[in-house]
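Hi support team,

I submitted a single chain yesterday and got back a structure, but I'm not sure I'm reading the token output correctly. Could someone confirm the output below corresponds to the sequence I sent? I've pasted both exactly as they appear in my results page.

Thanks,
R.
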Amino acid sequence: MFLAAEAAADPGLQGYLVTYGPLVLMFVVLYFLLIRPQQKRQKTRGMMLGNLKKGDKVVTIGGLHGTILEITDDTIILRVNDVTKLTFDRSAINAVSSTGALEEKK
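Hi R., thanks for writing in. Yes, this is the structure output for that exact sequence:
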């Protein structure tokens, strides 16, 4: 009985917990469901773009397949077929389909 009277007299801590608890819980859930996976995707994409090298077969964001002929800090020249060379930004590369080193060994 003494504990119940004490809790009723000091509702401050419980009031803050009831008020801000759901907000903190929502932020934690959003962090683990939205923010953290997006950061992982950005990190892996950055690593993929940083590891590009001459001879890699890549696919652009637009779906164009080609082989890297030249690469600089921000541009890439792709060979699409025997005579066509196209220049793209490095950020336009969507995926690496195969590396040039693997193809040279075969």
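A quick pointer for reading it: The two ends are 82 Å apart (CA to CA). Let us know if anything else looks off.

Best,
Support desk
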